[in-house]
Amino acid sequence: DAGVTQSPTHLIKTRGQQVTLRCSPKSGHDTVSWYQQALGQGPQFIFQYYEEEERQRGNFPDRFSGHQFPNYSSELNVNALLLGDSALYLCASSLQGNNSPLHFGNGTRLTVT
Amino acid sequence: AQSVSQHNHHVILSEAASLELGCNYSYGGTVNLFWYVQYPGQHLQLLLKYFSGDPLVKGIKGFEAEFIKSKFSFNLRKPSVQWSDTAEYFCAVNFHSNYQLIWGAGTKLIIKP
Question: What are phi and psi of A95, to 5 degrees?
């Protein structure tokens, strides 16, 4: 089963640095969403990519940016890291449409020191 | 702001007990409703969903949920839980014409054997 794969699984960065997280969607899916999950909370929507464009964005600053490639894979970039960016970053893939269920990867655990 | 609340953060039950997890949302318009589950060490996966039609929906592993529009609720139920149901359960809502999911904080369910 070619599910959603994310890399790396864990990452430790220093305040002010930049980070890139990667995601390969489930085979056949064309839409990628990124979520941030802080400890003890539910996931928070960062943005969604479809047809290589950001289709919708949540309430996150411009330090958070992304990209989708022609093969539907995606990257999440975070600049000028803050301690508060420490979280689990989840990638979810789906088919286009706002009621298509999400398929999640295992996430990337980012720690900012 | 649109929000989703889950009433219990931690629930402990014995095997064969009945389960009901509460979920309420704050939006009065058209919604799509989801319950996701995260078993220990695994990724989030869809348990069940409601888009329209019969307000009582059945999901995997004997779970069901009832959409009560007048109460803005989508509670999850299972008549008899098993030890293998130990997991974290998340309610999520997709509001009309919106691609993002709004998530509750999750309920950690522990089933005592």
Answer: -90, 160
What's the rounded mean pLDDT across residues B90-113?
92
**Closest to A46 measured CA to CA, from A107, A113, A96:** A107
Residue type, B95: F
Asked whether the CA dihedral A28, A30, A36, A42 is positive or negative, the reply is negative
Q: Is A66 on the interface with B (CB under 8 A)?
A: no
Residue range B16-21: average pLDDT? 97
Question: Residue B113 in 3-state DSSP?
Answer: coil
Q: Minimal Cα distance from B104: which residue of A? A: A42
Q: Reply yes or no on whether the pLDDT at B74 is more than 80.
A: yes
- Bridge partners of B89, per DSSP, are B37, B107
